[in-house]
UniProtKB/TrEMBL annotation:
GO function terms (MF aspect): transferase activity
Organism phylogeny: Bacteria, Pseudomonadati, Pseudomonadota, Betaproteobacteria, Burkholderiales
UniProt-recorded name of the protein: Glycosyltransferase
Native source organism of the sequence: Caballeronia sordidicola (Burkholderia sordidicola)
InterPro entries to which the protein is assigned, alphabetical: ATPgrasp_TupA
A Pfam family assignment: ATPgrasp_TupA
Keywords, sorted A to Z: Transferase
Superkingdom of source: Bacteria
Length: 239
């Protein structure tokens, strides 16, 4: 069975910006600095002092640059060449990625009031027909640091006693963001029309920014601990 044809433009991290703007508003998009056809010396020179470099056609193609003077055009050019030459379908066997034309783009670096990268709020949205979605929030803290943690919460911000993937839980669970209700409303809107999608958001200060839509997280093979949660979540797609 072929994947839903909507997956291609909505998984493309550049093309999906139009969908978010139409469903919500432009203010939910992380400001786009550039999306050059080719990464040249001139494109590098035009970048601001800090930014995030990404590729649109796969997972983990992210380079956070806090201080441009501490990197070089040659280093980033080598990285872009590696990314653009990667057929992510062959890496993960997620077929919708095979139809995305690889591009490099640059976004504004988001920081919280402490000058740190804000947590990722990954909202898993399960929906049957016109019913209200069942949602769980996976919070990834310090994603690019040395103490990355992953915690799962229900919509009332009760931490749940299981783990998805390879991040350890926090010793002390992070507090609920003050705009939790708005985060959930945003995820609800963006997930309309899909049985399942993970909506990734950032919420520094009073803002909410869109990260990505993921229809097949971890290519569907991330471990659940305990593994009964894998079965329980799977049932949400069938009931």
């Amino acid at each position: 069975m072929d994947p839903d044809p909507r997956y291609v433009p909505l998984t493309d991290k550049l093309a999906v910006r139009s969908y978010v703007s139409e469903k919500l508003a432009q203010k939910y998009l992380v400001p786009l600095i550039a999306a050059p056809v080719a990464f040249t010396r001139a494109a590098f020179d035009a970048l601001p002092a800090s930014f995030v470099m990404k590729a649109n056609h796969g997972s983990s193609f992210v380079e956070v640059v806090r201080d441009k003077s501490q990197t070089s055009f040659e280093r980033l050019q080598h990285l872009t060449e590696q990314w653009l030459q990667t057929d992510f379908y062959k890496v993960s066997r997620e077929r919708h990625y095979s139809k995305i034309r690889p591009r490099i783009f640059f976004e504004q670096l988001l920081l919280d009031e402490r000058g740190k990268l804000p947590p990722d709020y990954k909202v898993h949205c399960f929906r049957r027909g016109n019913a209200q979605p069942v949602m769980y929030i996976s919070v990834i803290s310090d994603r690019f640091g040395d103490t990355t943690r992953g915690d799962i919460f229900d919509v009332r911000w009760n931490r749940l006693d299981f783990v998805i993937g390879y991040y350890s839980r926090s010793e002390e669970p992070p507090g609920a963001p003050p705009n939790l209700a708005a985060i959930l409303d945003t995820a609800k809107t963006l997930s309309e029309g899909f049985d399942y999608v993970r909506v990734d958001l950032y919420a520094p200060g009073d803002n909410i920014y869109f990260g990505e839509l993921t229809f097949t997280p971890g290519a569907g093979v991330l471990p659940f601990v305990p593994d009964r949660i894998d079965y329980e979540w799977g049932r949400l797609l069938r009931e």
